[in-house]
Amino acid sequence: MPVITIKSLQLDKTVNTSNILSKLTVKTAQAIGYAPEHVWAAWEFLTADNYAVGAKLSNHQTQTTHSPLVRILSFEGTPQATVEKMMQTVAEILAEELNIDIGNIFIEYSEAHSGQIFDGGQVIYSKRKS
Predict the structure, then answer these.
(1) 64: pLDDT confidence band, cut at 50, 70 and 90?
(2) Is the pLDDT of residue 23 over 90?
(3) CA atoms within 13 A on the CB side of 42
(4) Segment 3-21 mean pLDDT
(5) pLDDT band at 129 (very low <50, low <70, confident <90, very high)
(6) Among residues 39, 69, 41, which one has the least CA distance to residue 53?
(7) What does the alpha-carbon distance between residue 82 and residue 113 come to, in Å, rounded to a whole number?
(8) Could you tell me how far CA 51 lies from the centroid of its own chain?
(9) DSSP secondary structure string, the chain?
(10) What pTM did the predictor assign?
């Protein structure tokens, strides 16, 4: 159940975030052996001059500063190799689709813990034995 959330400044009008979100879910699912419907993604835009890097503000996404801020949330116990595959896949897709350097993408990975997720009408617990 990886959930990919992206926050960025406004993008060039030619960038189609819907297509990027679809590509992110499908390619990330392939990379980690999940069905695409088990990977979710959303994009939020920050308003102009509401994102500072040091003292520098910007009103649009740049190629070298003001990285897209990405968070990947997944269930606890995900192997480190899988975490790395997810982050690398997301970074490569964003770099290509946004035409920015991969070094200008920030990704944070977070784990959701057993009993702390509500989905499908119920609280979800780990299937791993403690």
Answers:
(1) confident
(2) yes
(3) 6
(4) 94
(5) very low
(6) 69
(7) 17
(8) 18
(9) --EEEEEES---TT--HHHHHHHHHHHHHHHHT--GGG-EEEEEEPPTT--EETTEE-SS--SSSS--EEEEEEETT--HHHHHHHHHHHHHHHHHHHT--GGG-EEEEEEEPTTSEEETTEEE---S--
(10) 0.91
Question: What does the mean pLDDT of the chain come to?
Answer: 93
Angle subtended by helix axes 80-98 and 17-32, to nearest 10: 150
Q: Please report, for residues 36, 41, 51, 91, the alpha-carbon distance to residue 87 in angstroms, rounded to integers and kept in the order given.
A: 16, 13, 22, 6
Residue with tokens 């879910």: 25
